[in-house]
Amino acid sequence: MDKFRIEKMTLASLDEVMVIEALAYGEHHWSRDSFVAEINNQISQYNCAISQDGHCAGYMGLWKIIDEAHITNLAIHPQYRRKGAARALLLNGLEECYKDKIKYLTLEVRVSNEAAIKLYESFGFKSLGVRKKYYQNNNEDALIMWSENIFNESYKKRYQAMKEKVGDLILK
Fold this sequence. Notes:
The protein is built from 5 helices and 8 strands. It is an alpha+beta fold. An 8-stranded mixed β-sheet has the order 6-7-5-4-3-2-1-8. The longest helix has 15 residues, at 85-99.
């Protein structure tokens, strides 16, 4: 596993973010203007995982609404997949949710994205529904996944175990 520094996404990050976005989502990806809007959105938090070689390895966006957070997107450059960048971003996102007293996290994920589903399940997310024909490019369904209340003792134990297991992926 590599180590990553988690930094707030900025306008300067967007050239690398847009490369990752296109690689991850093909022609139906978010526009640069969408990311600019999200960077300036009061309820959103977008972070990049910066590799030890100084490149944006991936990014994750959250919308924080009262006591819930919605993971809007999580994408990793193919060169950095399975090296811990997504785990580092998710762990950082959880830490931010704890600080902001956010109890629940939710997201949508392609039903065919088995690697992402396993990752989210390792963080305690469960599939609680399906959005039919959610993805534009091929009308693929999306699983709707939710965490339990992250302040429950059972989840705090999971979080602490995850932090011990992968916390050293994050450079301070």
